[in-house]
Amino acid sequence: NAPLVIAHRGASGYLPESTLEAYQRAIDLGADAIEPDLISTKDGVLIASHYPNLAMNTDVASRPEFASRKRENWPVDGEMQSGWFAHDFTLAEIKTLGVVTTDPERPQQYNGRFRIVTLQEVIDLVKAESKRLGRSIAIYPETKNPTYHRDLGLPLEDTLVSAIRAAGWNSKTAPVFVQSFEPGSLKAMRAMGLQVRMVQLIDADGYDLETGGLSYAPPFHRPYDWERPGDQRLFSAMVTPGGLAEIKGYADGIGPWKPYIVPVQGQLDDAGRLKDINGDGKIDLRDTSTRNPTSLIADAHKLGLFVHAFTFRNESRNLAQSYLGDPRAEYLQFFRLGVDGVF
Fold it and tell me: Is the pTM of this model over 0.85?
């Protein structure tokens, strides 16, 4: 089968992410699925946003009427943040905010023009567009920071399961994939009777360009529902044979970060320092080469798990030097390796 193309937060290279306009653009461009990260408002409505901190992706900081709601040193999965947090705002209040593009090197002219959308609005869009276009478009929601939300008394899982049931989609063949970095969130929804395909996301903190491996630092070193009770395993434990077998017990697929499949590594000079291959004064992905692929896709497939890798981006700054600035070369490598979908 052709790999699924999953629109990461919508067509987020073109328009402010997680907006109805970004999701519509993604559908117009032919995406097989659109991906909303889900957080909760104060009144328990699920909205599409990668960030509980609204300062990251909206113009809330410029709104004097909300100045008093700013929190300093507020913990999100163990990371202290300052800003305005969705759980302090009703949906009606959040709907007054303008969404901004989070990547400063992407188009900024739409900042403030679009609004945050609810999960229900995403479901309604997908149903209408699937009917209009005569093709199935899937939704691919993620429970974002589920332990954090549970601590706030705003569990994501109950509301998400209810929405999927209400949409008539509670089956393995429904156009739905539910994903999370926290195994406990997926297990909880299975226990509630959710039948849709589920995906365990697998992260890391960053690239270790000297070794070709990955680095693991908080809060991206392990799932937060492992961190809290003191489970010392890292995300890397999930890609071992034992880790994959454990995932098979509650999920249908894995969503690994790309370098778990194709590692990248920089070059060292005689003094052991990383070389600035392209001479732009900084060391980044453009100074790396791809290494031999791992066996992760094959290992997952042996257990009957599909593999949807993240995140593919067209900008040359997001591509290893081996791809010569051509994002199609990266897609082609992963497609030939047998990946089942790409974010």
Answer: yes
